[in-house]
Specification:
The chain has 261 residues and is α/β, with parallel strands linked by helices. The chain has a domain at 3-145 and 171-199 and 251-260: Vaccinia Virus protein VP39 (Rossmann fold, 3-Layer(aba) Sandwich). Helices cover 44% and strands 24% of the residues. It contains nine helices and eight strands. The protein has helices at 3-18, 22-35, 52-61, 74-83, 122-132, 156-169, 176-185, 208-222, 228-243, and strands spanning 42-46, 66-71, 90-94, 107-113, 133-144, 150-151, 188-200, 249-260. Strands 1, 2, 3, 4, 5, 6, 7 and 8 form an eight-stranded mixed sheet that branches. The chain is globular. The chain starts with a helix and ends with a strand. The structure holds S-adenosylmethionine. The site of S-adenosylmethionine has 19 residues, from helix 3.
Amino acid sequence: MSKSLKKQSTEAEELEKSYQLPEIVRQRQHTLNKLSAKRGEQILDVGCGVGFLSYEIALQTGDSGRVSGIDQNSEMIRHANNRCESLRNTEFSEANAEDLPFPEESFDAACCTQVLLYVNDVAQVLTGIRRVLKPAGRIIIVETDWRGVVLNSDYDSITRKIFSAWDAAVPSPNLPVRLGPLLVDNGFCNVDVEPIPILNTEYTPSQFSHGMMNWITRNALKKGVITKEQSQKWLDDLDEKGKSGNYFFCVNRFLFSAQLA
Ligand SMILES: C[S@@+](CC[C@H](N)C(=O)[O-])C[C@H]1O[C@@H](n2cnc3c(N)ncnc32)[C@H](O)[C@@H]1O
């Protein structure tokens, strides 16, 4: 297996695990409620990952509707196809969110959850989504404000280094603060936004932040901004806080909804 395929495969397997955690299941339910897909609708899932959301939407649209998912990672597409094997109204393809491979006015609604932070040109994605939506089509976006994390740690300086490295690793770590105006600039109206807090007061692998803290620590280590000893000290401190009932992590996700003007 090539190095890049191995990386894609690892990312898909990590997503399989982390997106089944209760906080993310709740977030998905919130997203589904807001999307409110109807039978017969054609829905686009941009950056569909391993297909958790696409699967749920496809149950709502029924066989008279259709869910089309795209992702730039071929392993995500493989997982999404496996997940939706029993359904007849889903299709998944490898594509870039900045260059959507669909004709104009193909969809009643589009979702894009936890994807835009990784994208270089967010406006281009929004323009593409506008092009493929039918008149008055709906858009649902979920994004995280990674600059607003609240965390109890004894090591503020290491915390700052770890979060700065994560901030630099993605093009838009705090997109929510400017997404509303961006939607309007790109032809959407009736913009609504709701916070979805992720609060963890325990530190175990079944909490979202456990995996996330390990992930961003590995990122900081790889970027060379902390040493292995600092990484271990920081994670041990979180572990100790978990055991003594002092762990506290909170970050806000934001659910945006809008429609074509
Ligand atoms: C955190 S996952 C979210 C997956 C899914 N939307 C969900 O909420 O379950 C981010 C996904 O965005 C995909 N992605 C990132 N940048 C992309 C791009 N430019 N085009 C297509 N997919 C992209 C990644 O491959 C990954 O599957």
